[in-house]
């Protein structure tokens, strides 16, 4: 059986799809069979994040309508053969709860990890995605609006009795933390009262597709924390020691 994880956020634009794609890549690099699933039927960009938009023949709606088998809809990654994408297509409407359950059940039998990228917020798309998962990852940024909405998501997830809910903080700025202009990551974890999975710095090496350059080990750390139960966090403050010392004085 797979670990079925919904990747969610309270508001859009916090990097949820980027986290889903790159966490999937990092897990696949550990020789695990991983499928990333795009359950955002309006703003679906997961195929772009893994540079697979030109390789899609069928999508999950075709599976739900019995136009193809699920294996025919899966898009295998060119460089990581254990990573697959199950795409969706905008404009085809919603999918019934029964169809979602059938798709997730089939994927459960085929993979080690099922990572579901769901729409931001706590509306129908969120419920459709979370209902058939065992775990959740909440992606947020250290800004008030994002934290407020992430807290609402954490509260909404309670009714699903998930085994675990973890938090990833994206776009941390060590210089702003050192200057006292941004919350420290561990203050954020404490405010959300959820298990820390990892920290991602504001990083210009993440290109326009959302794919992280191979020399960046940020998501390798996240994948190790998720799979092996480690608690490693990137050090986003040490490079700003001079600012910290100035603030202390």
> Largest beta sheet, briefly?
8 strands, mixed
Rounded average pLDDT: 90
- The helix count comes to 11
Structural class per helix/strand content?
A: alpha/beta
CATH superfamily: P-loop containing nucleotide triphosphate hydrolases
CATH topology: Rossmann fold
Beta-strand segment tally: 8
Q: Compute the number of structural domains.
A: 1
- Fraction of residues in helix: 25-40%
What do you see in this structure?
It is a single chain. The chain is of the alpha/beta class and 249 residues long. It has a single domain, classed as P-loop containing nucleotide triphosphate hydrolases (Rossmann fold), CATH 3.40.50. The chain contains 11 helices and 8 strands. It has helices spanning 16-28, 46-49, 60-64, 70-73, 97-108, 124-130, 144-157, 174-178, 185-192, 218-228, 241-248, and strands at 3-8, 34-38, 75-76, 83-86, 113-117, 135-140, 164-172, 195-201. Strands 3-4-2-5-1-6-7-8 form an 8-stranded mixed beta sheet, with helices on both faces. Helix 1 packs across helix 10 (218-228). The protein is globular, with a radius of gyration of 18 Å. It starts with a strand and ends with a helix.
How would the blueprint of this fold be written?
Layout lengths: L2 E6 L7 H13 L5 E5 L7 H4 L10 H5 L5 H4 L1 E2 L6 E4 L10 H12 L4 E5 L6 H7 L4 E6 L3 H14 L6 E9 L1 H5 L6 H8 L2 E7 L16 H11 L12 H8 L1
Parallel strand pairs: 1-5, 1-6, 2-4, 2-5, 6-7, 7-8
Antiparallel strand pairs: 3-4
Q: Any descriptors?
A:
11 helices; 8-stranded mixed beta sheet; single chain; alpha/beta; 249 residues
């Amino acid at each position: 059986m797979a670990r079925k994880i919904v990747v969610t956020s309270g508001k859009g634009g916090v990097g949820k799809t980027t986290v889903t794609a790159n966490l999937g890549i990092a897990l696949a690099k550990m020789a695990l069979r991983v499928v990333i699933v795009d359950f955002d039927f309006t703003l679906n960009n997961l195929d772009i994040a893994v540079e697979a938009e030109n390789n899609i023949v069928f999508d999950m709606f075709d599976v739900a309508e019995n136009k193809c088998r699920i294996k025919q809809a899966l898009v295998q990654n060119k460089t990581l053969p254990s990573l697959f994408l199950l795409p969706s297509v905008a404009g085809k409407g919603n999918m019934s709860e029964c169809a979602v359950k059938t798709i997730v059940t089939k994927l459960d039998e085929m993979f080690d990890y099922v990572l579901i990228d769901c729409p931001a917020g706590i509306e129908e798309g969120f419920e459709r995605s979370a209902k058939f998962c065992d775990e959740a990852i909440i992606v947020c940024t250290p800004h008030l609006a994002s934290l407020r909405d992430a807290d609402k998501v954490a509260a909404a997830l309670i009714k699903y009795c998930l085994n675990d809910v973890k938090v990833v903080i994206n776009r941390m700025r060590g210089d702003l933390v050192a200057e006292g202009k941004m919350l420290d990551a561990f203050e954020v974890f404490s405010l959300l009262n959820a298990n820390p999975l990892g920290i991602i710095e504001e990083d210009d090496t993440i290109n326009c597709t959302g794919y992280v350059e191979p020399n960046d080990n940020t998501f390798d750390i996240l994948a190790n924390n998720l799979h092996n139960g480690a608690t490693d966090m990137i050090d986003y403050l040490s490079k700003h020691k001079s600012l910290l010392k100035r603030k202390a004085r």
